[in-house]
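To assess whether ligand presence alters the predicted conformation, the chain was also submitted together with calcium ion. Input:
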Amino acid sequence: MKKKILIIFLIVLIIFAATLSSASANGEVCVDIKPGSDPNPVNVKSKGVLPIAILGDESFDITAIDPSTVQLASPLHDDVVADPLRWSYEDTNGDGYTDLLLRYKTQVLIPFTVTTVAHGDEMELQIVGELKAEFGGIPIVGSDVIIVLNKMYNGD
Ligand SMILES: [Ca+2]
Ligand SMILES: [Ca+2]
């Protein structure tokens, strides 16, 4: 019986220690699809480019992220990911902290919308990646929501 209590105590201690470690260590990052726009309507058939920012702040320096690992993903489609066309460091929201600005071909969204959403629906998108090796290679994840335009159920 005492052993059980000790084990539970240790587990609680480990969880507590994990929560205490730095903000980036839990891997949650702040993502802003279409910086400057909220909500984020996206015509998924557009031949344009979709900007997505990972926001830096006083507790998180986004240059710790390894941009080569960053991919677009969806909680509903674990078999689909998309790589950015290009990325750059920019302060997208003017708060003085550098953001990682990723640009995706808008049409990479189409596989994410198959069967699950229709015109006017909200769809959650995730950004996943890793910190650079010198920052521990910790996995990162963040999400934001778009409003899907120009998409019908059943194919197109
Ligand atoms: Ca936005
Ligand atoms: Ca910023």
